[in-house]
Fold:
Amino acid sequence: EAQVTQNPRYLITVTGKKLTVTCSQNMNHEYMSWYRQDPGLGLRQIYYSMNVEVTDKGDVPEGYKVSRKEKRNFPLILESPSPNQTSLYFCASSGPRGGRGNNEQFFGPGTRLTVL
Amino acid sequence: AQSVTQLGSHVSVSEGALVLLRCNYSSSVPPYLFWYVQYPNQGLQLLLKYTTGATLVKGINGFEAEFKKSETSFHLTKPSAHMSDAAEYFCAVSKGGSQGNLIFGKGTKLSVKP
Structure:
């Protein structure tokens, strides 16, 4: 089954404790992206990746890191989480590259993160 | 730069009534436009998209949207609401140039009353 998976689905942590949220897709997509969803703000892009070893900042990258060492995986890293990073996080993938921006994005089920 | 405005953060309709969710966009290039739906505790699912060609686009679950360039709008409609349509709906526009990058509106939560 074609899908995007995220782990963990729920996470409660404390300020400053490094964490990683994993994202994996099995559709051989080149494009992957991370969003955060907050009430009243919709989805805001954190980082995206056009291909392996190619990443770029989205609209709200502060406090986050990503890596793209393999095509299927795109982990989101919070080196020192803070309470304002409490949010619902979604990973998405899309492809193949067409240069036209018209490809559907497939979303993971979400990770609800609480930073105390 | 692209942007999306969804009018109304909450919309409530009766079962069987017309559903109309409004979306206006701004884009310096011909836009690609999307509607996504998010059911409670789930990720986003594509309802429909407009890229080129026919301006009336049909999607899943009986939804459709019409691209109106003169009004910079892409409103989502469904003739008859069903209880299962209760969800949050997001309009999005492609940033253009970068494959896959989308700008989302803030969402409209649809409630359906029996």
